[in-house]
Amino acid sequence: METAEKLNETQLDLTKLDKMFEDFEEGNESLLIPLLQAAQELYGYLSVPVLERIAKYLHIPLSRVYGVATFFAQFRFKPTGRNIVRICRGTACHVRGSKNIQEALERALKIKAGDVTPDLKFGLETVACLGTCFLAPVMMINESYYGKLTTKKMQDILKQY
Question: How confident is the model at residue 61 (pLDDT cuts 50, 70, 90)?
Answer without folding.
Answer: very high
